[in-house]
Amino acid sequence: MQNTQLSKLLSYTLRHRPEELGLNLDAQGWVSVVDLLAALQVRDASISRGQVEEVVASNDKKRFAFSEDGQQLRASQGHSVAVELGLDPVVPPAVLYHGTATRFLASIMAEGLRPGNRQHVHLSPDRATAETVGRRHGPPAILRVAAGTMHQAGFSFYQSANGVWLTAAVPPAYLEPE
Ligand code: HQG
């Protein structure tokens, strides 16, 4: 299996459907590397621990992280299954960005940003990243999020291990299309 394919399989398994490989995530989203490797090798016997380590280390967005002792692996963000990542709330910068598709703008400005299938709304630290995220859905649009004002109003923000900003939802009053 190619590294890209293995990365996609890890994303799918560790964020969305661990049961398809016969795995269970713990409450914080961790899976035992020994169990994961055994399950992956049922799918494709050529997958080695070395290849998993390479995919984790070389992943363009650092989507996965090993536990400190190296015995467990989890996705850093993006889950649809309920996990408690154990992130501490942090003070966000004054402005964060959200990249979306132009066709979602009217609905977003009416309802605010909703997490959809995921556990959180994902926000980007800069416009360029937001544009890349938005382009995945079609012609992109960028929204400025008044994160500092939201935080002062009592909303909690978290930053995942790979630098993505997370919050529960963003009401329309804090959004401004660029
Ligand atoms: C939109 C990737 C209509 C929202 C990226 C987005 C990110 C609404 C789409 C991560 C809405 C959900 C997450 C509303 C939100 N009305 N549309 N009220 N509220 N939306 O993929 O943020 O490669 O679940 O704007 O880099 O695009 O997977 O979220 O367009 O970090 O590691 O609903 O996924 O990372 O789409 O992307 P998604 P996202 P990975």
From TrEMBL:
Ranges that cross the membrane: none
A biological process term (GO) from this entry: tRNA splicing, via endonucleolytic cleavage and ligation
Source organism of the structure: Hymenobacter perfusus
E.C. designation(s): 2.7.1.-
Family classification: Belongs to the KptA/TPT1 family.
Name of the molecule in the record: Probable RNA 2'-phosphotransferase
Molecular-function annotations in GO: NAD+ poly-ADP-ribosyltransferase activity; tRNA 2'-phosphotransferase activity
Gene name of the record: kptA
Pfam families reported in the protein's UniProt record: PTS_2-RNA
Function: Removes the 2'-phosphate from RNA via an intermediate in which the phosphate is ADP-ribosylated by NAD followed by a presumed transesterification to release the RNA and generate ADP-ribose 1''-2''-cyclic phosphate (APPR>P). May function as an ADP-ribosylase.
